[in-house]
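With this grant's support, we have settled on a layout for protein records. An illustrative entry appears below exactly as we store it:
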Amino acid sequence: MNVVLTIVLAVQMLTALGMIGLILVQHGKGADMGAAFGSGGSGSLFGASGSANFLSRTTGILAAVFFACTLLLAYFGNAQPRATGSSVLDGLAVTAPAPATAASGAAQIPGTSVPAAGSATVPAAPAIPASGAAQIPTK
C-alpha cells in the first residue's frame, strides 16, 4: 500500500509541474491578434495556430490526471484503519493539571527564594496599583 501511495504522489507532483510549465508557455487571448497581422507566429514550432490546440489539450489531460491522483490520495488517506472511536479527539488522553502550590509559583519567579518545606512563611503578594481616579497624576 505504501508503494502505491508513493507512486500516486509522484505522478501528482509531476503532473502539477507539467501543468505549471504548460500554462506558462501558452499565449493569452490577446496574442492571437498579433499573430493575425504577421508578428512571427507562423514560424513557430507548431505552426501559426497548432500550438494552441496541442498545449491546451495537453494541459487538459494533465489536469484530469492531477484530479484523479488527488481523489486517489483522498481515498487512501481515509481508508487508513483508525483507533477506537470515529473522531481524532477520541484518541487523546485527558490529563489533569498538577495542583498549584504557593512554593511552585514563587519558584518560577527569578531572584526570589523559596521557603523551606517546614516553614510556614509565604512570600507576600506584590502590591496592586491603584485604579480609577488614583492613577491620574496631580499637579
User: Anything to note?
Assistant: The CA atoms of residues 37 and 107 lie 83 Å apart. The helical segments are 2-25, 31-36, 50-78, 102-107.
